[in-house]
Specification:
The protein is α+β, with helices and mostly antiparallel strands. It folds into three domains: 38 residues, no CATH class; 109 residues, Outer membrane lipoprotein wza domain like (Outer membrane lipoprotein wza fold like); 85 residues, 2-Layer Sandwich (wza like fold). Helix content is 23%, strand content 22%. The strands form four sheets. The chain has a five-stranded mixed sheet with strand order 7-6-12-9-10, covered by helices on one side. The chain has a three-stranded antiparallel sheet with strand order 2-1-5, covered by helices on one side. Strand 3 and strand 4 form a beta hairpin. The radius of gyration is 27 Å and the shape is elongated. About 4% of the residues have low confidence. Keywords: Cell outer membrane, Ion transport, Lipoprotein, Membrane, Palmitate, Polysaccharide transport, Porin, Signal, Sugar transport, Transmembrane, Transmembrane beta strand, Transmembrane helix, Transport.
Length: 252
Amino acid sequence: MRYTSFFLLFILLQSCASRKNVAYLQDVNNNSNSQTEANYEPVLKNDDLLSIIVSANDPEITYMFNIPQIQGSYKVNENQDGIKTYLIDTKGEIEFPVIGRIKLAGLTRTQAIDKLAEKIKPYITNPTINLRILNYKISVLGEVNKAGNYTINSERITLLEAIANAGDLTIYGRRDNILIIREKDGKKTYNRIDITKSDFINSDFYYLTQNDVVIVEPNKTRVNSSAFGPNITATISALSVIATIILLLTRN
């Protein structure tokens, strides 16, 4: 009977969840002064699809830069929804009207706007340039409630916001070993992030970049339950609690 008690107690302890495996930013109280870069901007990459609209005091002089997607559909002073888009090629360049090929990959959005403005100034005084990444998206996979691809309209998203968009991690998702796959300078990098610790807020992976892939790995409970069924662990936990209570009562 004594060995049975120890065995049941062991099962009970194994089935209990621990805060350190579930809670986010557990040490945030100890690092309450941590600060992140408020002026984060994404860096343009190959295969980014850009919308670039040039504006000026006289809209008519911007016509040669705002080429319509379908020739002949462009009208000055009207909605510019049909403006041509630009795909950054494998050399990091786009072909822009009048000024020709220009390299934008590797630049932040602000730097790209400044570079375009400098090239356009010989033709337009004080041009205003609106540049946006149209295919800014991230993917969230694994132990989350809504895995999938997510298009980001703001061009700025944190890892925690991406997880929230995916419906948060399931109880079986590992918080301490999230994988972020990121492409940089044409090479993929594999990075492990622990969101139970607050120091990741100051890392290069607090803000996600376009086309990042976030993968949440399953914990041991999920891996073990896959061999028996998704509810076996919960069933064992319930039975172990009931058995322990009965054992304690009968001993008295």
